[in-house]
Specification:
Helices cover 54% and strands 18% of the residues. It has 431 residues and is an alpha+beta fold. Helix 4 runs antiparallel to helix 5, helix 5 packs parallel to helix 9 and helix 7 packs antiparallel against helix 9. The chain starts with a helix and ends with a strand. Strands 1, 2, 3, 4, 5 and 6 form a 6-stranded antiparallel beta sheet that branches. The longest helix has 74 residues. The chain has 9 helices and 13 strands. The protein folds into 2 domains: 168 residues, Beta-Lactamase, CATH 3.30.450; 149 residues, 2-Layer Sandwich (Heat Shock Protein 90).
Length: 431
């Protein structure tokens, strides 16, 4: 299911970002094409202004100068004196013959009532707008007509500029943009694979943990159910000993109730439905109460519980008093289970960098560095705890959730001389 979801996300990401990339490249290409055409038009108008001034001011026009202007600017220059063309034939070869293009431009200018066959009525020069002319082979040109009175007659300038090189440049730009677009989409595909893969890692990990949780819970529930079933069958076979078997059933029901309660606590934490009371807690009083409560329990286990407090009073913190006591109970119980016989368990607290630190220290076998991160996993148990049917490996998972619920952290480190020290840090400034 996750693989199908991953493919959908990759496709969605690639298509959406690819569409945006394509749109941007299309806009840039069109804008560049417009700029190139505008540059051509500006160049044409500059040449038109230069040549029209020469036609207007000079009586004789050098053919050499005209040929240079044509070559340098891809121009077709046609000058008439009183409707009669000059002997200059031009030096630029174009796909469509020069005469055809000139006639086409003249006809286009006629639509604006500009004729090279009639002398202007006024004494002012007459200039057409810039036209776009298409030849017989789809070759494109810019063109304009200029007529100026001269004595009793007039002169006409018909000027065209070949701009098909602009089209070739545009085709090159389009091909380049298309290639860039394909490469960009391919790159976005690989980037999307990486991003989606990274994004779904927590989901995959959560699903894996959920599967492990369900499998472990099923396994843990199967054992007491088997005992209950066996005892129920024994009651039928040996009614005289039913009390002993019923006590076994009651013990297993109590174990199942504890397991289910722990599982419900973790489920509430996962769905953010864990409710807490925020109140100012007297830290010294809380620790003394925890010590008084669990001292007999540790004594029963053959362990000594000691409370170590600083000379000055500890600052108060805000949180849920009962939840923090529950966290301490888990840590003390864990130390009592793991520590060696006649060990001393230390419960101590101190302030460090605007945090209240509460530690539970034992001198048991300790925990290997590679397993330290696993102790907070659900249903994780050390070898000794696996033999103890009263522990399911959920306590430290619940303790970690309780610590995070108070914006704190729960960690573990080695005890000096051997063993494990669990520490709970909670901000002081939340008070």
């Amino acid at each position: 299911m996750l693989n199908a979801l991953k493919r959908k996300f990759i496709l969605l990401y690639t298509v959406s970002t690819g569409f945006i990339l394509t749109a941007v490249l299309v806009i840039l290409t069109l804008n560049t094409s417009r700029q190139l055409l505008q540059e051509k038009e500006n160049s044409f108008l500059s040449s038109f202004s230069t040549i029209s001034k020469t036609v207007q001011m000079d009586k004789e026009i050098s053919h050499l100068w005209l040929s240079q202007m044509e070559k340098e600017n891809q121009l077709l220059i046609h000058i008439e004196d009183n409707g009669t063309p000059l002997l200059y034939q031009g030096v630029i070869n174009t796909p469509t013959k020069r005469d055809i293009l000139i006639q086409k431009l003249k006809k286009t200018a006629l639509t604006d009532n500009i004729s090279t066959l009639v002398r202007p009525v006024s004494l002012k020069e007459l200039q057409s707008k810039t036209y776009q002319i298409t030849g017989l082979h789809k070759d494109r040109y810019l063109g304009a007509v200029f007529i100026v009175p001269s004595g009793e007659g007039y002169r006409s300038l018909i000027l065209l500029q070949y701009i098909n090189s602009n089209r070739r440049s545009r085709y090159t730009q389009i091909l380049f943009a298309a290639a860039l677009d394909l490469l960009g989409i391919a790159a976005l595909f690989f980037v999307s694979r990486w991003i989606v893969g990274k994004s779904l890692l927590p989901v995959e990990e959560s699903r894996r943990q959920q599967t492990e949780f369900v499998a472990a819970a099923s396994h843990e529930l199967k054992s007491p159910l088997a005992v209950i079933r066996a005892n129920a069958s024994a009651v039928k076979l040996e009614p005289a000993s039913s009390l002993r078997y019923l006590e076994g059933i009651d013990r297993e029901c109590s174990r199942m109730a504890l397991l289910i309660e722990d599982m419900l606590l973790l489920a509430s934490a996962d769905t953010n439905r864990w409710q807490t009371k925020r109140e100012l807690i007297d830290t010294d009083t809380l620790l003394i109460e925890a010590y008084d409560t669990y001292y007999p329990y540790c004594k029963e286990k053959g362990k000594e519980l000691k409370l170590v407090l600083p000379a000055d009073m500890l600052p108060g913190v805000k949180g849920d008093r009962e939840r923090i006591k529950q966290l301490l109970a888990i840590l003390i119980d864990n130390a009592a289970v793991y520590s060696v016989p006649e060990d001393t368990i230390l419960l101590k607290a101190y302030c460090y960098k605007k945090q209240l630190v509460i530690e539970v220290e034992d001198h048991g076998p300790g925990i290997a560095d590679e397993k330290k991160k696993d102790v907070f996993r659900r249903f994780y148990r050390g070898d000794k705890a696996r033999k103890d049917k009263t522990h399911y490996g959920l306590g430290l998972s619940i303790a970690k959730e309780l610590a995070e619920l108070h914006a704190g952290t729960l960690g573990i480190r080695d005890t000096l001389g051997g063993g494990a020290t669990f520490y709970f840090c909670i901000p002081i400034d939340n008070a």
